[in-house]
Amino acid sequence: MLPLRQGIQDRGDLSHFMREAVREAKKAWLAGEVPVGAILIDQSNKIVARAHNRCILDNDPTAHAEILAIRQGAKVCKNYRLNGMTLVVTVEPCLMCMGAIINARLDTLVFGAFDEKSGAAGSVYNLSDDGRLNHRLTVIPGVMEKECRQLMQGFFRERR
C-alpha cells in the first residue's frame, strides 16, 4: 500500500471515513435504494462531499453514490479536477463510476466490499491499473469489508 496523506496512515483512520460512508448507505436503504454510500475527502482529510445512491428517487441511472459525491466535490472546489482527493465508498465501483473517478483525477479510492458481478477496481475489471489510460490512482480495498458486505446482503435478503 502506498503511503497516504498525513492523518490517513492505516485502516483505523480509513475506518473512520468508511463509517461515514456506511451512514450514507443506510440512508439509501431507508429510501429503497441499493445501499451504497460515498464520502469525498480533500488533502487535509476534511469531508467535502457525501452521497448515497439515488437512482430511483431521481429517476436517473447515473445517480450512483460515487457520481453524486464527485459532482458535489467539483462544485465545492469549483473545479472538475479533484486532484489529491480520496473517495471512500462502501462497495467497489462499477465501470461508469470508475470512469468518473479516473476523469476527475482522484488520487485514492478506498472501498469496503468487492462487487464480483460488476466491480471495476479489481474484481471483474481493473481500470485503476490499466496502462492504456492516462491516470492511475491508489486503490485500497477491503476497509470494513464484512460490514459493507453484510449491508448489501441484508438489503437484498429483505427484498426477496
Q: What is the topology, as strand order, of the major beta sheet? A: 2-1-3-4-5
Coarse structural class: alpha/beta
C-alpha geometry: globular
Biggest sheet overview: 5 strands, mixed
- What is the typical, i.e. mean, pLDDT? 92
Calculate Rg over CA atoms: 14 Å
Structural descriptors:
160 residues, 5-stranded mixed beta sheet
Structural commentary:
- The protein is built from 5 helices and 5 strands; from the N terminus they run αββααβαββα.
- It has helices spanning 11-30, 55-58, 65-77, 95-103, 145-159; strands spanning 37-41, 47-52, 86-91, 108-113, 138-140.
- It has a 5-stranded mixed beta sheet with strand order 2-1-3-4-5.
- The longest helix has 20 residues, at 11-30.
Put the structure in a nutshell.
With about 160 residues, the protein is α/β, with parallel strands linked by helices. It has helices at about 10-30, 55-60, 65-75, 95-105, 145-160, and strands at about 35-40, 45-50, 85-90, 110-115, 140. Strands 2-1-3-4-5 form a five-stranded mixed β-sheet.
Write the layout of secondary structure elements.
Layout: H1 11-30, E1 37-41, E2 47-52, H2 55-58, H3 65-77, E3 86-91, H4 95-103, E4 108-113, E5 138-140, H5 145-159
Parallel strand pairs: 3-4, 4-5
Antiparallel strand pairs: 1-2, 1-3
